[in-house]
Amino acid sequence: MGKNSMPLKKYLLFALLFGFVAWSAADAGEQKAEPPFDVVPLQGSEITADTGEKPQSKLWLHDGCWWAVFPNAAGTNLWRLDDTRWSSMLHLSDSTDTHADARRVGGLAHVLLLGNARCELVSLEYSPAAKTYHLWPKCPAPVSFTLDAGVETATIDVDSSGRMWLASDGESAINVRWSEPPYSSWSAPLALANGVGDDDICAVAAFPSGGAGVLWSNQNTRQFGFRFHPGDATPGTWSGDETPAAASGLPVGGGMADDHLNCAVASDGTLYAAVKTSYDTDGYVVIGLLVRRPSGVWDELYRVDDDGTRPIALLNEKSGSLLVAYRLGDAIVCRESPLNPIAFGPRCTLMTKGAERLNNVTSTKDSFSDDVVILASTATTAEGVRIRPR
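RE: above sequence
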C-alpha cells in the first residue's frame, strides 16, 4: 500500500459514510452482489473544463502517488493526490479550457493540452527528493501544435523505441503525427483514413512489440477502423485497414460505430477498447468491448451493457481482470470481467452526486494492480474515487 493510502477499515468506513458505494443489478430481477473491490470517494475540486474527452487519460501513478492534470480558474495545473484531496503542484498553462491526455514513461510524464484552437505538449521530469515534477530540461518549454481543422480530441502514446505518436481527427480524416525525443519537432500529418464524419474520433496506442496502432470510429460506414504500424518499419509505414469485429456490425439503428472509444494495451500486445455503439435499439449492445489479439485477429464484439455512454477500459493484469467504467443516467458505474474468458459481471455504482449529473469518466493508460483512481465531472467540479481490489 502506498504512503498516501488509508488503512482498509478507514477506507470502508469513509466510503459508507459518504454513500458512494452501491451495487446494482445488471438486469431487472438480478440478485444484488457484493462489489469485488473497496471504493473511497475523493474530495471534489473546482474545474473550468470537464474531464473529457472520451479517449483521453488524465491520470497516472508514480512513486506511490496518483497525479492528474485538469484546469481551474487559475489555469491548467498538475495535481497530486494527498490522501483524498488534490494538491496543486505545478502550473502548466494559463489556459482554463484544456482537455489533457497524459502518458507516463518512467520518471517522465508527457501531457498533451488541447484547448479551443490550441494544442501544446508539456514534458515533465520527476524529482524523487522534492516528490514532485518540474519541466523536463531537455524540452523546457511547451511545444505548440497546429492540429487539424475541426479537431475534436487528440491523444498521445510513446512506443518502446521512445518515439511519440499523436492521433487526431479532422473534419473528414484521421491523422497521425510522430516525433523523436525530446519531442520539440514533429512530422507532418499522415492521413490513416478519409471519409469519416466530422463527429468521429480516434485514439493511438503503443504496443510492447514497438509498434503502434490507431483506432477510430466511422459513422459513415457504421464501423470502427484500425491500422497498425510495425515497430521495425519506417514511421510512415502502416498496415492496411482493419475492421474491428466486422461480423458484429449489424444493420440496426445507426450501426455499430459511435464516437465513443477508449483503449488499453496488455503486456502481451492484446488491445482492449471500450466503445459505444449506435444501435440505439432495445436488446442490442450499447456499451461494448473490442479485443484485438497479438496475432492481429479481432474477437467479436463483447456485450458490456445495454445502456450507458462514454466508457473507458482499465486493465488489472495482476488479477487478470478488466474494468469498464461509464456513465449511466447521472452516475458513474462499472462492470468487471476476467481476461479469459471475457464475461462481465453485474454493475457497480462508483459515483453519484445527488441531483447533479456526473460524466466524462477518465483514468490512466497504465495497467493497475494495487489501486486505481477514476475521475468524472459535474459542470463545475471534478469528482473521483479510489478503488482497490480485495
